[in-house]
Amino acid sequence: MANKSKLPLALGIAALLLVVVLGALVLSTGGKNEDKKAAATPTPSATGPIRDAGFEFVAQNVRCGVERVGTDALNKTPQGQYCLVTLGVKNTATEARVFTDSLQRAFTDAPAEVRSDPVAGVYANGDNQALVKEIPAGAQATGIVVFDIPKGAKLTRLELHGGVSGQGTVVPVS
């Protein structure tokens, strides 16, 4: 019976090790190399920071039409097209917290709801893995959140979440 209670802990440790190994592989191959065939850049239209569940967000840049993230040696390609969202995240809570990019959503004109692609995010961030580490109280981190949207689709809005219990906040993209 004691072995069954240790299973969730072992699975959690294995998942963390996988993220660390992927990050080390990206770092060891020399940084990022995003495909340069990106389409015109939509811009986030929220003015100033927005908040949800102990985090403050500033969507700094959105770039869609990216056909590959990573390096020449180690990369990932989308099923459709990648949209890379450069996101500033500030921890407004009183304790250190981890930002979870897998909770973030994008919406397209298709219309479709798309969850972020955390593995592509590891590749896109190269040697900057600030958004997969614990963010101390009051500190800020900036990184890229990646969405794989259908080819020809355009982002209309982002729904950013500070945690599982957060309601989320919407950022229009024009």
Automatic annotation (TrEMBL):
Pfam families in UniProt: DUF4352
Gene3D superfamilies, alphabetized: 2.60.40.1240
Keyword Signal applies: yes
Keywords: Signal
Domain DUF4352, chain residue ranges per copy: 51-167
Descriptive protein name: DUF4352 domain-containing protein
Source organism per UniProt: Longispora fulva
